[in-house]
Design goal:
The complex is a heterodimer of chains A (405) and B (83). Chain A has 405 residues and is α/β, with parallel strands linked by helices. Chain A has 2 domains: 244 residues, Peroxisomal Thiolase, Chain A, domain 1; 145 residues, 3-Layer(aba) Sandwich (Peroxisomal Thiolase, Chain A, domain 1). Chain A is 36% helix and 20% strand. Chain A is built from 15 helices and 15 strands. In chain A, strands 5-4-6-7-1-8-15-14-9-10-12 form an 11-stranded mixed β-sheet, sandwiched between helices. In chain A, helix 1 crosses helix 15 and helix 4 crosses helix 8. Chain B has a single domain, classed as Orthogonal Bundle (Non-ribosomal Peptide Synthetase Peptidyl Carrier Protein, Chain A), CATH 1.10.1200. Chain B is built from 4 helices and no strands. In chain B, helix 1 crosses helix 4. The radius of gyration of chain B is 12 Å and the shape is globular. The model of chain B has no long low-confidence stretch (mean pLDDT 93). The chains are: A alpha/beta (405), B mainly alpha (83). At the A-B interface, loops of A face helix 2 of B.
């Protein structure tokens, strides 16, 4: 079977706008969570969110390129610039070879709302402007980046709720293994704004621990009370080993396993059986045993039932020994972006031999007590890690990544 | 509004919002070949013309606008009709 490797990474997130900043935040346990006063004004139950600033793109992109990009598209562009530079995928190469893009994204609320407001108020669709349609569609990131970067390979968006970008990486692995593509730009983007989060807030799924926002996201902790929505974008360059060697590209890590499953159960409440099958399938794909995993980046979003069921699935498959953390304790829940970003966070930890703290993990509950989770950073050599991403509708995705030796 | 005032306003939004270099702006400049604008950009020109000049643009009439002086003429005519 063809070996699949990662040759570039880039990130634009609430805990740093490039790999170096993000690694520093992970190492030191720095939270990216704060308060958005607009959400309070809008009657939200929770004003908590990841805090991020939009990049200034005027010097980097033409007007035509910029006006099609929504917020999460801007983040995706910045993350992808960092990744393609690391992977040595310059424009000349991209024009002469088939480089694909598979990106996770599952909403684009603000442009949709703005367009509908204009049509309702002005009764003239032309006044919506020419960029709106390209910002509004779920495929906004792939349609824009494929044009900006002159990509000529596979080109579409994967919408799989909070597992979107993890599935995007998994799909790229399969395409490359089939020999259909050599290089695919993968990742996930997530908008960070009140408009996109109102309906989610309405489900009472968000933490309301507003007295200290950095303590609100507390995966696996006994006193967790909900997730904190967040976002940004993360890009990884997925490539066949042969192509990477031929190009002389830096080989950062090897993707060895992809598992997936669907719960076939409740639309928002996860279960234990579905994630367990995803974990087992990923191990089988990688042809390794549970004890070969040195570290698990859990999906764990800090919701009472989600973390409880994932803890049971992890215990069933891995037992008590393997160190587990949830980087969502620092970033909040990056949703469509989370699958890709958490691969990057975990690779940074693998490269620097540590496991970031699960912030605010102070007291375990009955199930997390059986797992190896720490509220403090652990110094640890990691050769192989596993990362989980689960989403609404019971979609599950698991990726396994190995150090290149 | 005088024609000169129209010209100043149109040139200003082309420079500020469409990022066209000032030295490319001339009455006989072709939107496509000289200014690098395309059909999608005309949608945004309509939005700005309505905003800045306060009349309703008929998209069909914009089809005949090829060079900058055509746009000055069109706005001049519409503003005078409205006044």
């Amino acid at each position: 079977m063809k070996r699949i490797v990662i040759t570039g990474m880039g990130i634009y997130s609430t805990i740093g706008k490039n790999l170096e900043e993000v690694n520093n935040s992970l190492y030191n346990g720095i939270s990216g969570i704060g308060i958005d006063p607009k959400r309070t004004e809008d009657g939200f139950r929770s004003p908590l969110t990841g805090i991020i600033t939009r990049p200034e793109l005027k010097e980097l992109l033409t007007r035509r390129m910029r006006i099609g990009l929504p917020e999460q598209g801007e983040y995706a562009y910045m993350a992808t610039l960092e990744a393609i530079e690391m992977a040595h995928l310059d424009e000349d190469f991209r024009l002469k070879n088939e480089v694909g893009i598979l990106y996770g994204n599952d909403s684009s609320a603000v442009p949709v709302i703005n367009a509908i407001d204009i049509v309702r108020n002005k009764k003239d669709t032309m006044l919506v402007g020419s960029g709106s349609i390209f910002q509004s569609m779920n495929s906004t990131i792939t349609m824009n980046l494929s044009v900006i970067l002159k990509l000529r390979g596979i080109n579409f968006t994967i919408s799989g709720a909070c597992a979107s970008s993890s599935h995007a990486i998994g799909m790229a692995m399969i395409l490359i293994q089939q020999g259909l593509q050599d290089i695919v730009i993968c990742g996930g983007g997530q908008e960070v704004n009140a408009e996109a989060m109102g309906s989610f807030d309405g489900l009472s799924a968000f933490s309301i621990r507003t007295d200290d926002p950095t303590k609100a996201s507390r995966p696996f902790d006994r006193d967790r009370d909900g997730l904190v929505p967040s976002g940004g974008a993360a890009t990884v360059i997925v490539e066949s080993y042969e192509s990477a060697v031929k190009r002389g590209a830096p080989i950062i890590a090897e993707l060895t396993g992809y598992g997936f499953s669907s719960n076939g159960d409740h639309i928002s409440v996860p279960n234990v059986e579905g994630p367990t099958r995803s974990l087992e399938r990923a191990l089988k794909y990688a042809n390794i045993r549970p004890e070969d995993i040195d570290y698990i980046n859990a999906h764990a979003t800090s919701t009472p039932i989600g973390d409880l069921n994932e803890a049971q699935a992890l215990f069933n498959v891995f037992g008590s020994k393997v160190p587990i953390n949830s980087t969502k304790s620092m970033t909040g829940h990056e949703m469509w972006m989370g699958g890709a970003s958490e691969i990057i966070y975990s690779i940074l930890m693998m490269q620097n031999s540590y496991i970031a703290p699960t912030l605010n993990f102070e007291n375990p509950d009955e199930y997390s007590a059986k797992l190896n989770i720490s509220g403090k950073r652990m110094e640890k050599n990691i050769d192989t890690f596993l990362s989980n991403s689960f989403g609404f509708g019971g979609t599950n995705s698991t990726l396994i990544v190995k150090k290149i030796k | 509004m005088t024609r000169d005032e129209i010209i100043v306003k149109v040139n200003a939004f082309l420079i500020d919002e469409f990022e066209i270099e000032e030295d490319k702006i001339a009455p006989n400049a072709n939107f496509k070949d000289d200014l690098g604008l395309e059909s999608l950009d005309f949608v945004d020109i309509v939005v700005i013309v309505e905003r800045d000049f306060g009349f309703k643009v008929n998209g069909e009439e914009m089809i005949n606008i090829r060079q900058l002086s055509d746009l000055y003429d069109y706005i001049d005519q519409q503003v005078n009709v409205h006044n």
